[in-house]
Design brief:
Blueprint (H helix, E strand, L loop, with lengths): L2 H25 L5 H33 L3 E2 L4 H8 L4 H21 L4 E2 L6 H17 L5 H25 L9
Antiparallel strand pairs: 1-2
Length: about 180
């Protein structure tokens, strides 16, 4: 299936599902049918739009991070150097350093694939937009409306990343 058709089908499914979900979730919070319908339209349209945006950003992130690896050796020192002025922070830094040294010995220099981090940026963007738009819309049952969207988007992001990475690479034909 063509990626554009797959994306359009995903957006339509997303609209229908989240329209229905928001209608039900907000119907429990208020009797105002106009507000319920408006909230459902906002959430459905937002979800369809976000599906398109999310998939685009995810594909870019996967292409950037798919061949990268993150070594845990550099994470803690970077975080701790900013706050290492006081004696308490120096003790925390030493504790982290010991934990990091023990982890490095245990893991024997294993690294975390960068592809595990690829979905985090689109998930954060999607979550911020969904919460912000529904907050501005004064959605009556905000958290019940957006939580499934965020969770399903996270699952979708990791499954989609896995499928992108598991596709066999097409060999480049030279003429």
């Amino acid at each position: 299936m063509n990626s554009t058709i797959r994306l359009i089908i995903s957006a339509v499914i997303s609209f229908c599902f989240y329209f229905a979900w928001s209608y039900w979730a907000n119907g429990m919070a208020t009797e105002d049918q106009e507000l319920i319908l408006r909230s459902a339209l906002v959430q459905g349209t937002l979800s369809a739009t976000i599906t398109i945006l999310f998939t685009f950003i995810l594909e870019k992130s996967v292409s950037k991070f798919s061949e990268s690896y993150l070594s845990l050796m550099f994470v803690v020192p970077i975080i701790c150097t900013v706050h290492s002025k006081t004696s308490q922070n120096i003790a925390i830094f030493r504790t982290f350093k010991r934990a990091l040294d023990n982890s490095a010995k245990y893991l024997n220099n294993n690294v975390v694939p960068g592809s595990l981090l690829a979905p985090l940026l689109p998930i954060a963007i999607q979550s911020s937009i969904a919460i912000g738009v529904n907050w501005v819309n004064q959605t009556p049952n905000l958290w019940l409306t957006v939580t499934p969207s965020i969770l399903i988007t996270a699952i979708y992001g990791y499954v989609y990343t896995y499928t992108l990475l598991s596709k066999p690479k097409q060999p480049v034909l030279q003429e």
